[in-house]
Amino acid sequence: MTTTMTMLRTVLLRRPLAAMLASAVLALAACGKSEPEPVAKAPPAPDSLPFTVLATTDLKDAQALEGMVEKATGVKLRFTWGGTMESTEAVLSGATKADAAWFANAKYLLSDPQGQARVKLQEKIMLSPITVGVSESAAKKLGWDDPATADKVTWKTITKAAAEGKLTYALSNPATSNQGFMALMGVVAAASDKADALAAADVDRGAIANFLKGYKLVGDNSTYLAEKFIEQQGPRLNAFINYENWLLTLNNGGKLKEKLVLVYPREGVSTADYPFMLLQEGRRADYQKVVAYLKSGEAQVWLARQTLRRPISAEVAGQVADLFPKTGGTLVELAFSPDRQLSDGLIDAYLNEFRRPIASTFVIDTSGSMEGGGRRAQLVQAIHYISGDDASLTGRLAKLTDREKVWMLPFSDRPRQMTYFELPAGRTKARGVQVQEDSEAKQKVLGDVRDYADRLSMSGGTALYDSVLVALEHMLAERKKNPGYQYSVVAFTDGENNQGRNLKAFQAAYAELPEDVRAIPVFMVLFGEAKEADLKAMVQTTGGKVFDARKTPLYAVFKDIRAYQ
């Protein structure tokens, strides 16, 4: 009735008498019988909308800030998560609609004019230097366990130990994550003795090759790497290169076989300063409120105690000094070269020349159910993307690389015939790095992979476990012949296993394989009606990781997997 009276008042003010009376009669007749048409609402005021922040996944330990910020400032802070390079690409391209971004380090982003234009404001929030965590027994053998000698360790010392097989480490993928890239940059800068003016032509290729001899565990996610390092710490792995906060968290977690001695290379380390960056000018006021809180004593102490990152505030740093190792003085900050040719050339050289080449078997579900719901089309698109169809930044990083070996193993009610592809080696340089165009020979192989995907046909049941077992046995035989490759299995299914071995029988067969199989992770893609619990159980048996493609485009999941290979 209130709505009706409002309508009458509006009518009285605006309409002639006859029309006014007619409208009034109609309105009264309708009273109690039906609702009036809704009045269009004004758009919400900006300060009532969530303040969205695109943050890199290593910041998930700070998610509780959402509630803390809202309580302190009234701003509804909400995080979305992404990997370093995909988030960087989202900002550079303008694809993200987030109001702000929060990365561990934005040097790569801000070395690009487009990145500089996207970022309206930035404030450093906290600090965590990259350091080398070495198992106590290995540190003792290397003479790095004594603080007096540990302070003299350099990137050159670390590189020499890796080249001699004395340092075997876990590190996030330098092509897709900040800590991996900055560790590699530290090695390059130290070898050149000219970090400030370092250019692509100055890179000492021998130093990169020697350092990477110790690289034994690859991943794109610090949580994944920490879990695998805990499992494999010992003769296979004796070091973990990461941000200080991750290594301190591991030492405090009680799960390591032995604690880590933290080594800070003397000639300099790269420190993550966690810049909080405004992307949408219209949210400047909310941004400033959030930043003011994050830099407040309350938030700085909470961040230090909960995430083990050092406060940006010198005053607060004194209050929490007991949380952090004493490093024998102020840490030297390694200069970051703004030369994008250096950054891009170093990433390209790492992917195509210096890292251990990849050898993998793709176990591809071609059962009849793959014809439904556009699933075959998604699968074909995903294979096209990793074979050169995606020209974006993350697409280039995910593309099949020089020297790579790939076996495609389709399966339905049984494993089918494998098809083999080998990418040729690229051209090498005597010194320096640069992005190199694909050779004609490489372009042909990439085209052959795309043609293979186009010819895939779907029919039959789903013998997942039999097919994964065949792939693992094949990878074991290849690894025995060519130990210099990095082996993995990537398995994809859209349904529940209904042919051949069940999970229990697979686990029994896996237990009978040689111990070397533990070095071959299985990366599972969850898609369609695949049984999540079974896939996770299989990965717990084999090592690796489950990737969920039910809400994410399949090609994007394939990109993610590439960072773990």
Q: What this model shows, in words?
A:
- With 565 residues, this protein is an alpha/beta fold.
- The chain folds into four domains: 1-34, no CATH class; 46-127 and 273-323, Periplasmic binding protein-like II (D-Maltodextrin-Binding Protein, domain 2); 131-272, 3-Layer(aba) Sandwich (D-Maltodextrin-Binding Protein, domain 2), CATH 3.40.190.10; 356-562, von Willebrand factor, type A domain (Rossmann fold, 3-Layer(aba) Sandwich).
- It contains 24 helices and 18 strands.
- Strands 5, 6, 7, 8, 9, 10 and 12 form a seven-stranded mixed sheet that branches. A six-stranded mixed sheet has the order 15-14-13-16-17-18, with helices on both faces.
- Helix 9 packs across helix 11 (205-212) and helix 18 (375-389) crosses helix 24.
Mean pLDDT: 88
Strand content: 15-25%
Number of helices: 24
How many domains? The number is: 4
CATH topology annotation of the largest domain: Rossmann fold
Kindly state the number of beta strands: 18
Supply the CATH architecture of the largest domain: 3-Layer(aba) Sandwich
CATH fourth-tier homologous superfamily of the largest domain? von Willebrand factor, type A domain
Oligomer: single chain
Radius of gyration: 28 Å
Global structural class: alpha/beta
What is the molecular shape?
A: globular
Write down the CATH class of the largest domain.
Alpha Beta
Low-confidence stretches: 1-40
Give the % helix. 40-55%
Largest sheet: 7 strands, mixed
